[in-house]
Structure prediction request, 280 residues.
Amino acid sequence: MIKKIGVVARPDLRKAIDAAIGLAKHASLRGVLPVLDKASYNWGSDEFEVMDLEEMDVDMVFVFGGDGTVLRTVRRLDGRRVPLAVVDFGTTGFMAELPPQMAKNFLNKAIRGEYILEERTKLRTSYDDVVLPDSLNETVILTSRPAKLFSFEISVDGEWVDQVFADGVIVATPTGSTAYSLSAGGPIIHPQAKNMVITTICPFRSWIKTLVVPDTSEIQITPTTIKKILIATDGETQTQIESDNLVISIKKSPKKAFFAKPSGNGFYRRIREKLGGGRA
Prediction:
């Protein structure tokens, strides 16, 4: 039962903000209490309750934006079992299920419990005793010097796979398989598949371009030539570290992300629409 919703919007897009406030007004008319996100930006409205997303006790969060807004919202929820309904105000992202004109109709259906709840895998990245923020899309390991090849070893579940010379390596979830990994030549993986994908970036003389492994695996990346590397999680946090005797571990996080989607909205239809191929 949906009685209270959070509302988050892309802060730099006025039409996303206006649509979010429009949904908040519609929710009030339907007897659902909307709470506007304070931390994203100044809503400029005294009409609704405003607080930080981290403090909200809500049944669902409506996100008006693209994949970047979604990733930041997921990080702020930090694994709480609150489903996101994503209204598309992005560009080429794949996580937005709802066109803007369908947001109010979806809320009407959600009030009646007519939606699908999807769980999405997140990644946990660590080195030494340091645990980085979880990533919903991917963890990327790069040299801190642009356009500089470096050498690293890849192991999966303790078994050595290969030594690679490349610009870097991406470890992606199924959700993230349609993001940076896809651009680097990785495969598209259905978001409900139980896999992770390792995609090397511009590899030089390596048999590994991309490798799909079970999501129960622990992937270890060991830099062997570069003194400083950069670890990026979801493109939102960047950590520069010394690589001497360093082993970076990437595995499935105990925390998940949750999405509310309309019934009948197919993953393959969205792929066709976003990538522009096949029948309408």
In short: The radius of gyration is 20 Å.
